[in-house]
Amino acid sequence: MTAPQRTPLYDSHVAFDGKLIDFGGWELPVNYGSQIAEHEAVRTDAGMFDVSHMLVTDVTGDNAKAFFQKLIANDVAKLTFVGKALYSAMLNDNGGVMDDLIVYRMNEEETAYRIVSNGATREKDSAQFAKIAQEFGIILTPRYDVAMIAVQGPKAIEKLLTVKPEWADKVNALKPFVGADIGDGWFVARTGYTGEDGVEVILPAEKSGEFFQALAKAGVKPCGLGARDTLRMEAGMNLYGNDMTDEVSPLEAGMAWTVDLKDENRDFVGKSALVALKSAGVTVKQVGLLLEGKGVMRAGMEVVTDAGSGITTSGVFSPSLNQSIAIARVPVDFTGEHAKVIMRGKEVEVRVLKLPFVRNGKKQFD
Hints:
Substrate binds at residue 200. By secondary structure, the chain is of the alpha+beta class.
């Protein structure tokens, strides 16, 4: 057994009494005392997460745009200006999701881009990047020298700017899904994984502890993986390995909106498999489930519908709703508003809802 890797913020987690666990081979805090308090901070005020386990890769070269048009299912031609971000799945040859990632355009000439991909899949991702890169002669630079902190919540930007007032013009001008190079190796993007406003800050690793401490002093609450999971679940956001996997296509995982088939001449990895699946007919779809009674739904529970069985892919107790919620894959023909989930051998009634459950602190259903 190899010891889990540590991010540049390991000492900060220890200093703030973080309860550290092994998460996909990384030693990260599950909470700093109260997952519920951390969740509430992000929904009502501001919280921050160490997401330095995610891999930042800089991509440069004359064929960088062509490389991405082959690598991912979404089309980087949508990145019409510097700083614009694109969310996409990276597929395998069978059309399954190898990972989901964000690509930023970094220069006018379309010869420099930045990828942010998941921590648990970094070896697999890097191997795929390198394999496709050979064809296009581009340079991949994994940025092991940076840290990444997500500052999220309705007061996230306000509190961030008390720490970095000199950023005000650039940060206030950022629209959702746009990033800006602040200089000296700092990059700020208006993105996140919580369903709240906020930013993700990529910064030099050696500056990260001091920045984390300054944010905490400004009233930004350190938050762990527990709150990150309940927040992303309420926001209806997929988790790699649960709601999307190598065996599941984006068309089956609620990610059809990230697949761009408009350019018939663009041949991306997994395209032919997706086109075949589309013409054969997708058999499952993604929905949200709400448990009206007591108990907590978890991943891997059978969902019973009048159109056949489905399965929960993620499930938690939602602090904002005070009820259990789940993301599930069910038969595509199922249109009912109620289903049943098998919990401890018993069928339990659940409501079927459109995702998300919560967005910007507000419940999204009646």
